[in-house]
Every structure is written in C-alpha cells, then in structure tokens.
UniProtKB/TrEMBL annotation:
Residues 38-48 have a biased composition (Low complexity). Residues 18-62, 103-122 are annotated as: Disordered. InterPro entries: C1q_dom, Collagen/C1q_domain, Tumour_necrosis_fac-like_dom. Its main location: secreted. The keyword Signal applies. Gene3D superfamilies: 2.60.120.40. This is C1q domain-containing protein.
Length: 272
C-alpha cells in the first residue's frame, strides 16, 4: 500500500509491503541501493517486534507532521480569505457612499385607481374673524376744547364691544393689525369748524367748514383708510381754537366711527 504525506510543499511516498509472519516493513520509495542494503541488515539484526514498533512510530510521526503542516496551511488560507473579505467589504462601503450622476427622469406612470372613501371626520370649531369696531358721538351741550391740539372726546358710546375706543381720552387704540376705516360726521353751528384726523401725533387729513351766520346748522364729513399695527392710536383733534363749531342736539349729532376692514394676522389663533 502506498502512503503519500504532504510536508512543507513536498510529497514523500512510503511503500508498505507485508513481511513473513504477518509483519509489516516500511520502506522508502526508490532509495539508493546501499541504503536499502544497510536497512535490510539492520532489520535482519532487529527482532520482529522491534521492527514493527519502529515502523509504527515512524509512521505516526510522519502523519503528525503532515497533519500539522496541513493545519498551518489551512489556517493561513483562511486568514488570507478573511483579509480579502474585509478589503472587499470596505471597498463596497466606500463605493456606496459615492453619489452617482442624476439619471434621466423616467416616464410618468399611469394614473392609479381611486382609493376607498374615508370615514367622515369630526366637526371642527368654526373660525371667528378678528373684530374691531366702534362708534361714539358728542353729548348734548358738551363744552368742547378750545385749545389747539386737544382731542375731541366723543363721550357717548354707540358701539364699542372690543373696548378699543376710550371715551376719557377720545382715542382709538389698535389691537388687531390691519386696515381700518375712520369717519367723522360733524354738525356745524354758531361757528366755523376745522379739525384734523390724527394718527400717532401726525395729521392724516384736515377738514374745514365755514359758518356764515346761517339760520340753520350745516354739516362737515370726512374719512380715511389707515393701516395700523397694535399700539397705534387714532383721534380727532382741533386745528384752530376759533374754529370749534362742533354741535350736537336732540335732532342732529356729531360722530366719530372706526372699524376693521381686513386683518393681517398670519397663522394666528381664533379671535373673538
């Protein structure tokens, strides 16, 4: 029987031939003649038991050496394979991080089928638009300011739900940003009248009515659109002390009115 043993990249062959009496003798494949003669002489001088033990010991040693060499070779191959896999994994990660060029936009797909009708949602709260409005008039027989720059105090409230107009000062204070319209309707009697519509101390518009000793009262009206932000104030102011012909009676009134046209609240909460 022929036994091949791998050792350090070389192959050695051993031939095993049966000897007389059932014993086995391990011989090297194709050794030199003088070595074969020496081995035969030694074997002839050695007892059968010693020959068998030596052969088995040599065979086990050769097999152990071959197995060790094979294990080392296998381990080295596994290490190289693991290292190659690690390099490949790292390269794949690097390549995945790279962004390629944007591809051509694909064709528009067919329109899908309509989905099922959803359940009816809960009823939400009704939104309330911001509000701001007032109207006030002069009381009968009210003594008007005679000093230039004084605000005319329209002291009798007709409407002031948001409380934006103050009867003590005669001024409207803005709370909701937006565009407002203000109007003044005056009854002129016993004297000429000139007043200004003011915003934060600046004249917006001026109005004048001459009184020519007419037997009956006359009228003077004016109005203006104003853009306001919270904190702005608007009022009616006397322009000249001698032109103070505001008049009010049971049959005729002098009024100051203002209201919000539209607000500029963006993403605001609901205002009542």
């Amino acid at each position: 029987m022929l036994l091949r043993v791998w050792m350090c990249g070389s192959v050695k062959q051993f031939s095993q031939a049966p000897l007389s009496g059932g014993e086995e003798q391990l011989q090297l494949d194709s050794p030199p003649r003088h070595q074969r003669q020496d081995q035969q002489q030694q074997l002839s001088r050695t007892s059968p038991n010693q020959t068998t033990s030596a052969a088995l010991s040599h065979r086990q040693s050769s097999r152990s050496t071959a197995e060790t060499s094979w294990c080392l070779l296998t381990r080295k191959m596994l290490q190289e394979r693991t290292r190659a896999l690690q390099i490949m994994h790292t390269w794949n990660k690097v390549m995945l991080r790279r962004e390629g060029e944007t591809g051509v936009r694909g064709l528009t797909g067919d329109k899908g089928d309509l989905g099922e009708k959803g359940e009816r949602g809960q009823q939400g709260e009704c939104a309330v638009a911001p509000k701001s409005a007032f109207s006030a008039k002069l009381s009968e027989g009210l003594t008007l300011p005679l000093t230039v720059g004084d605000a005319v105090r329209f002291d009798k409230i007709t409407l002031n739900e948001q409380g934006d107009y103050n009867t003590e000062t005669g001024r409207f204070t803005c709370k909701v940003p937006g565009v407002y319209y203000f109007a003044v309707h005056a009854t002129v009697y016993r004297a000429s009248l000139q007043f200004d519509l003011m915003k934060n101390g600046h004249t917006v518009a001026s109005y004048f009515q001459f009184y020519g000793n007419w037997p009956k009262p006359g009228s003077l009206s004016g109005g203006s659109l104003l853009h306001l932000v919270p904190g702005d104030q608007v009022w009616v102011q006397m322009a000249l002390s001698e032109y103070n012909g505001f008049y009010s009676s049971t049959k005729t009134d002098s009024t100051f009115t203002g209201f919000l046209v539209y607000s500029e609240w963006k993403h605001s909460a609901v205002f009542a």
